[in-house]
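Section 3.1: Structural characterization of target chains.
Under the original work plan, the team committed to producing a structural model for every single-chain target entering the pipeline before any wet-lab resources were allocated. The record below documents one such target. The sequence was received from the expression subgroup and is listed exactly as submitted; it comprises 141 residues.
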Amino acid sequence: MSNLSPQNTYHQNRIKTAGQSELIVMLYDAAIRNLQIAVEELKTEKPRIDIVNNAFNKASGIIAELSASLNFDRGGEIADHLFNLYCFFGSEITKANVRKETGNIPTIIEMLEDLRRAWKIAASDASSAPAGHYEGLSING
């Protein structure tokens, strides 16, 4: 018998069946969600540092994973720009975590939401393109 809840089973199946662009959207969703958790917790009268630290660390790990997945051979200038953005995001998340303040995190959330929307469109375009006709935005699978 599985130890997974129905919700965890659903999430695992969703990840296993998602296309490359859909996985990127899921990563953006998780990064945004964790940054929002950290920001909201920091706004409280007595922020719980463990929650803030955990949320920032999860977001930072996701950004590192997005950065590591870039394919510079196929992605060219887009991959270079995304890499620079991810480096900036990682640096700002680390600063905010060390200082336990929101800093530029609200702006980073907005930027991640913009990137997420672009990937969502790419995922939609990929699913409607003829087989073998769409190569994505040069991210390793």
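The radius of gyration is 17 Å.
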